[in-house]
Specification:
Two copies of one chain form a homodimer. By secondary structure, chain A is mostly helical. Chain A has a single domain, classed as Winged helix-like DNA-binding domain superfamily/Winged helix DNA-binding domain (Arc Repressor Mutant, subunit A, Orthogonal Bundle), CATH 1.10.10. Chain A contains eight helices and two strands, in the order H-H-H-E-E-H-H-H-H-H. The first copy, chain A, has a two-stranded antiparallel ribbon with strand order 1-2. In chain A, strand 1 and strand 2 form a beta hairpin. In chain A, helix 1 packs across helix 2 and helix 5 packs across helix 7. Chain A is elongated, with a radius of gyration of 17 Å. At the A-B interface, helix 1, helix 7 and helix 8 of A face helix 1, helix 7 and helix 8 of B. Chain A binds a DNA duplex through helix 3.
Chain lengths: ~140, ~140
Amino acid sequence: MFSKSCEYGIKATAYIAVQAKNSNRVSLKEIAKAIDSPVAFTAKILQQLARTGIIDSVQGASGGFEIRHSQINKIKLSQIVSAIDGDNIYKGCGLGLNACNAKKPCPVHYKFQKIRDELKDMLESTTVEDLTLGLKNGHTYLKR
Amino acid sequence: MFSKSCEYGIKATAYIAVQAKNSNRVSLKEIAKAIDSPVAFTAKILQQLARTGIIDSVQGASGGFEIRHSQINKIKLSQIVSAIDGDNIYKGCGLGLNACNAKKPCPVHYKFQKIRDELKDMLESTTVEDLTLGLKNGHTYLKR
DNA sequence: TATTCACAGGATTTGGAGAACATCTTTTTT
DNA sequence: AAAAAAGATGTTCTCCAAATCCTGTGAATA
């Protein structure tokens, strides 16, 4: 469904948000450990997220990553996905055709459109805060 | 969404079905040309589909691939997907966790489950015949 | 029965995403 | 100002899906 990068991006953002709620700034290492991801690779993804303004990075000793409290309930999953995987999930043809659209649809175009639209709605109506709720009370997990 | 193999598999099956309705048996080359896919790679995928009984292959001169008329409206998209990609699409975790299930769900588990269930329903309720209809009257396409 | 056509299937190569490594830059602390 | 902590960036390595190659086998037909 999503690329590995995107999966890590979502998990990392969720973890940072949980810690930000406790006013903790977290380091790259801590994040990688918490979401069980390769450190160096995670660094690149966090950079992408920081550049697009989804998370904030602070350099230097006692630096790390954080998210402004006011942003936690505003960041939508769709933003993270777009930042990392682009909008191919919404636009891409189910059968991989380059020019698949309403004018020249592939045989499964409309059936897939329905699914994709629902996926889009879901991603646009789910905020990072939604993800933190289950994590805080231990009902959901980021590892294993 | 699907692997390239799977995309080719669906397109090939649809094409073979259209031709089978006209009582034409089609060769590997013709199929590859019709769906704009690499010949050798397509051969492998057709082998898989033939082995699982979704399509029939006939060796020798004037051989090729075909589908029994009585099967065209019975073969479901889900069968093709399972034969090539397995059932990872239904089971796989949205965030790539190995052990993501109702007992230890990831933060997006239930939201994704809904989408996946709908995808499953769609694939199970769409037959190869459904795909052939648009192709025959020129409303849908397999190339470009 | 020899030839040719066409699929079967094992072995191999290629390309790109994912992962790891090394180095440079910035910021904080002392 | 120097050292330490941490992010930024470029390069390399690895692995698997994607694609190809080559040889084997079966069927038609002359």
